[in-house]
# Entry
Amino acid sequence: MILKEAIEQLKSGLAGVAEPQEVQAMIRVICEDVFNYDQVDVALRQESELPDFAQERIADLITRLRRHEPLQYVVGQALFHGHKFKVTPAVLIPRPETEQLVDLIIDENEGSDLRVLDMGTGSGCIAISLARALKFPQVDALDVSRDALEVARENAATLKVKVRFFESDMLAPQPAARYDIIVSNPPYVCWSEREAMEPNVKDYEPGQALFVPDNDPLLFYKAIAPYAAQSLERGGRLYLEINQRFGNEVKRLLEDCGFDEVRIIDDSFGNPRFAAATR
Ligand code: GLN
# Structure
C-alpha cells in the first residue's frame, strides 16, 4: 500500500467522525506518529510504499476513532508545550489551556533554583514542562493514581528531566514542605456537566481526573489552598486551573486563606480559566 492510498482510506473512513479540518489534522498526526512521515514527506512521497502492517493498522485506527476513542490514546502520545508526552487512559490528555498556565508560570518566575510542586500531575505535563523551562528548578509532583505516576515517570525519563514523583491523595494531609511555586489542574468538572461533554472525553478519559460532585465543586481547591498557604514561602505563588463557572468562588477562597494579589485570568477563549495568588 502506498501513502496516497492510506491517506484516501483514512479520509473516507473518518469522514463524519469530526469536522473535515479536524479529520485533516488527525490524518497529519497519524502519518507522523504511526507511519513516521512528517508534512514534507507527505507532500513529496505520495507514492512511497508503506510497511506491511499499514493496512491492518489503518483498519484498526478507523474502527477506534469511529468509536470516538481520542486520537491521542490511539497513537499513545500528545503534544504539550512543544514536547511529545506519552498518554494512556490512566491520564488526562493535556489541554492547550494548560499550556497557557505553564507559560504564565514561566513568564512570572524568572528566578533560579525555585522549588515547585505540581498537585495531581497526571501525565506529568505541567511538572515536566516547568522542569525543562525554569532555571535549575527542583520539581516535585504528586498524584493519587499509581498508573498515572508510571506514565509521568516515563515522560520525565524520555524528556530527560528530574522530577520527584509521589503517590499521594491531595485531599489527604500532605507532609510539611517548603515551595516557591505550587501549581494544580485538579478535577473541576461537575458531574452534572458531564452529559454535555463530547463522548471522546466522557467515555474515555479518567473520570477521577475530571469530575467533582455538584454539591462540592471546589472540593480540591479547599484542600490545595490551605496547604499552599502553609507551604509556600512568603512571596511564593499558587497557580490553578479552574472551572470557568467558579472564578469568583475560587478568588474568595484564596483571599480567605490569606493570599494576596489574587487574580482570575482568562484563557485564550475568553473564559476565566486560571487563578493566581501570592502568599
Ligand atoms: N479542561 C478539562 C476539560 O475540559 C477539565 C480538566 C480538569 O477537570 N481539570 O475536559
Observations:
- The radius of gyration is 20 Å.
- The chain has a mean pLDDT of 96.
